[in-house]
Specification:
Immunoglobulin-like, four-stranded mixed beta sheet, 3 helices
Length: about 400
């Protein structure tokens, strides 16, 4: 009986078919027609800081409902991400992380990329906006009086951060700080303390805790308008300078300067409700006593006050001795003198001595002393009654620094 003999050609054909089948199976696993899938790479950054955002959940979707493909990954510590082994198709990427606005398939910033086998696609940088939902920041500072620099510790206060309001607070609570919802965009901080003008502080955002440092508040104020009255003519003509002070205790809270020919002056910026005493320094005068001003507690307007040089001030006086000399003097002549500005007169003296040259003779007559205001230049007139209109004049500054009588000689 003959053994069956196998045909070598048949074995070769079977082997070739097996290799073709194996190759097809490998191609179906790795891609169409045996090609390797493509990849997608990119990065996610914070739109404000441009720093990489870590742990962003990224989803890639392609195809229709009947042939849908989905892949997932997360961004690394630098915000970078990578998808590999992606089938050839158009893929849509979505991005999501708590604290950021999600970027989904409907967002204008949605990322679409076409993948081609054996190729790597680099997508443009993806920027995500923080939402700060349920996030809070603390804003603090120190309130000081702009006038005296002291820390404000008393008074009903209101703090307004955008739309977030804190009412009926103490100013000192600002040093601890207020927690408000974090937000992007411009933000105005309004601080109102009783007795002070509201301060507005603009901020670019409220993304992190903020220390505003020292915030100075201007006190609410009133002003005193002073009016000069009973000003002597020589003071008016001299345009004498006055310096006026408003004091609270030993502290000067307002100050002004004025000339006595002006109708009035203003003391501005006196803290609301603060009682003050007002005094002034004027050449040749001293104030009898300061003038007190007592405003109502909430008064913020204008208080008018007169300042009389006759009633509120006293002129600084000095003895003035007038000496008259004239070669034409004779016995029984009546000699006198007066001041043109003040009207002060020296009594007329009748000469009884014979003509001579020594002091006390008719050629030099001591008319005695009278008290005169100091600090100003006056015109002194000497005359002889018997000579009618024959008068002699001299101008003299009366100093206020002498204990003895100041001599005015009329030649």
């Amino acid at each position: 009986m003959n053994r069956e003999r196998r045909n070598p050609m048949t074995i070769g054909i079977l082997t070739a078919l097996f290799l073709v089948l194996l190759s097809s199976l490998v191609g179906c696993e790795n891609g169409t027609l045996g090609l390797k899938g493509g990849s997608i790479s990119g990065s996610v950054v914070d739109s404000r800081t441009l720093a990489g955002v870590t742990n962003v959940n990224i989803t890639a979707m392609a195809g229709t409902e009947a042939n849908k493909a989905t892949k997932y990954t997360t961004s690394d510590s630098n915000g970078n991400f990578h998808f590999s082994n992606m089938r050839a198709d158009e893929w849509t990427l979505t991005f999501d992380k708590v604290g950021y606005m999600p970027i989904d398939t409907t967002a204008s910033a949605a990322v679409k990329v076409v993948v081609v086998n054996n190729e790597s696609r680099q997508v443009p940088q993806v920027r995500m906006d923080q939402t700060f939902v349920n996030q809070y920041v603390t804003i603090r500072g120190t309130l000081k009086d702009a006038t005296n620099g002291t820390v404000i510790t008393y008074g009903n206060a209101q703090f307004l951060f955008g739309k977030e309001s804190f009412s009926n607070r103490l100013p000192t609570e600002f040093t601890t700080g207020f927690r408000i919802p974090a937000s992007t965009g411009p933000l105005n901080v309004l601080i109102t303390v009783a007795g002070y003008i509201t301060a507005t502080i603009p901020l670019n955002d409220a993304l992190t805790d903020r220390d505003l440092g020292t915030v100075t508040l201007q006190p609410e104020t009133y002003k005193v308008v002073g009016r000069w009255v009973d000003v002597p003519g020589w003071v008016f003509a001299d345009k004498a300078q006055a310096t006026i002070f408003a004091r609270s205790g030993s502290r000067i809270v307002a100050m002004a300067s004025s000339t006595l020919d002006a109708q009035q002056f203003e003391l501005n910026g006196i803290p609301k409700g603060l009682s003050v005493t007002i005094d002034a320094e004027i050449k040749g005068y001293r104030m009898n006593s300061p003038i007190s001003v007592y405003p109502n507690g909430d008064f913020q307007g204008t208080i008018y006050q007169t300042f009389s040089l006759k009633n509120n001030f006293s002129a600084i006086m000095r003895e003035v001795r007038v000496v008259y000399s004239n070669a034409a003097l004779g016995t029984n002549d009546r000699v006198g003198a007066y001041c043109e500005e003040t009207g002060t007169r020296w009594p007329e003296t009748i000469l009884t001595n014979p003509t001579g040259t020594a002091l006390g003779t008719p050629e030099i007559v001591d008319l005695g002393t009278q008290y005169m205001p100091t600090g100003y230049t006056f015109t002194f007139v000497g005359y002889i009654v018997e000579q009618g209109d024959s008068k002699r004049t001299v101008s003299k500054l009366i100093n206020d620094d002498g204990a003895e009588a100041q001599i005015v000689s009329i030649p």
